[in-house]
Amino acid sequence: MALAYRLFTNPILRSRPPPKAFSFSFMPHGRNFSFNSYVITPRELSEALAKNVPTKISTAPRVIPLCAAWFLPNDPQGRNGKDAFKKKRIPSARFFDLDEVKDHDSPYPHMLPTVEGFAAAMKNIGIRRDDAVVVYDTEELGLFSAPRVGWTCKVFGHPTVHVLNNFRLWVQEGYPTESGDVGAVVQEGSHYPVPSLDPDKVIKFAEMKDIAKDHNKEGREGVQILDARPKGRWAGRDPEPRPGLPSGHIPGSVSVPYSELLDANTGALLPGEALRKLFESKGLDAEKPVISSCGTGVTAAVIDLALGEAKFGEEDNRRLYDGSWTEWAQRVSERDRLIRNEA
Fold first, then answer.
1. Which among 262, 197, 199, 252 is positioned nearest to 227, based on CA atoms?
2. Contact, 139 vs 81, CB < 8 A?
3. Contact call for residues 315 and 308 (beta carbons, < 8 A)
4. Using CA atoms, how far apart are residues 9 and 328, in angstroms rounded to an integer?
5. Of residues 18, 15, 49, 56, the one with CA closest to residue 33
6. Distance (Å, rounded) from C-alpha 264 to C-alpha 245?
7. Confidence band (pLDDT; 50, 70, 90) for 23?
8. What are residue 102's phi and psi, to 5 degrees?
9. pLDDT band at 10 (very low <50, low <70, confident <90, very high)
10. 28 pLDDT exceeds 50?
11. Is 33 helix (H, G, I), strand (E, B) or coil?
12. Do residues 80 and 90 lie in contact, with contact meaning Cβ atoms separated by under 8 Å?
């Protein structure tokens, strides 16, 4: 078995103090605010923006709302993230395009970009490394793609990143919005150094395959695979949104539809205690490692976010399967028998 697999399944070997870069209470020099958690409310963001109005000559760290609007390719209304950003956004927000900021050499939709690609994307939308980034979604969908962009920023070591819970509430509670072209928001680019990638937050296909093959074998029960897709797709009853892709699930995976983690009316993440009870009802163990997956690695990050908000296990014991079901269903062969269905 690969060394990486042994490390991941051994909590003692993987345990270490959480990186200081992701402490959630900060007030750096020149930044007049403090966020106390990774997930923040509209009121907290509004107050931070009011205390940190950017000027053309200031070089102090800023609070930057970052719109991560994205819709599935089979969206019934044909909506897309750029149009949603143009239609309604938080004033001074930037747009992070999930369909562009990715590994363009990969055949899979949303694989992490290279370190150079991430730095270029942040530079092009005018974000500096010392900016506090607050990622948010669309009013239409509620919490959906913002956790993926927040997770991506953490993977590439951006020191100060948060997720807004959520833009629908921002609008409903009467906070300001604006509209207009994407290009009009960024007056000029920024300097953003090429970062490094934290490999401990990501799991790749080869290791996933080893884990799936060992499912149910004695001594290999430690890894919990959580799938954020709707239950019908996980069970193999409903089609995938991408033509030609079979539905089903990875052996041993547990269905945790991301919609179950959200309030049905507001689309906001449920409170931590409610999330903890939900994870316990699925038979999950907070002491065991978790791998989050979904269709293309987007809503898997909703699970990762919810685990953190529920304080269910340690962050160092969580990874995200970047290629998720789209990669899995295309790379495993029929003889592997690694696609399972449940009637």
1. 252
2. no
3. yes
4. 21
5. 49
6. 29
7. very low
8. -160, 180
9. very low
10. no
11. coil
12. no
Separation between Cα atoms, residue 241 and residue 275, nearest integer Å: 27
Is residue 75 scored above 50 in pLDDT?
A: yes
Average pLDDT over residues 120-131: 95
**Of these residues, 133, 143, 294, 298, which one is catalytic?**
294
Q: Is 253 helix (H, G, I), strand (E, B) or coil?
A: strand
- What is the sign, positive or negative, of the torsion defined by CA atoms of 208, 211, 215, 220? negative
The dihedral through the CA atoms of 21, 27, 28, 30 has a sign that is positive
The answer to whether the beta carbons of residues 137 and 81 sit under 8 Å apart is no
Residues 6+ apart with CB under 8 A from 3: none
C-alpha–C-alpha distance, residues 4 and 93, integer Å: 39
Catalytic residue list contains 294: yes
Sole residue written with tokens 């909703």: 302
Q: Tell me phi and psi for residue 262, to 5 degrees.
A: -115, 155
- Do 294 and 240 contact (CB within 8 A), yes or no? no
| Cis amide prior to 166 (ω within 30 degrees) | yes
**Separation between Cα atoms, residue 99 and residue 102, nearest integer Å:** 7
* Residue 9 phi, psi dihedral angles, 5° rounding: -85, 0
pLDDT for position 221? 67
Of the chain, the end-to-end C-alpha distance in Å amounts to 32
In contact, 188 and 217? CB cutoff 8 Å = no
Is the model's pLDDT at 6 over the cut of 80?
no
Structure-block tokens of residue 166: 């959520």
Nearest-angstrom CA–CA distance, 301 and 258 = 9
Instruction: Look at residues 145, 200, 142 and name the one whose alpha carbon lies nearest to residue 22.
Output: 200
Mean pLDDT calculated for residue range 168-197: 89
- Taking Cα atoms as reference points, which of 97, 150, 100, 341 lies closest to residue 240? 341
Structure pTM? 0.89
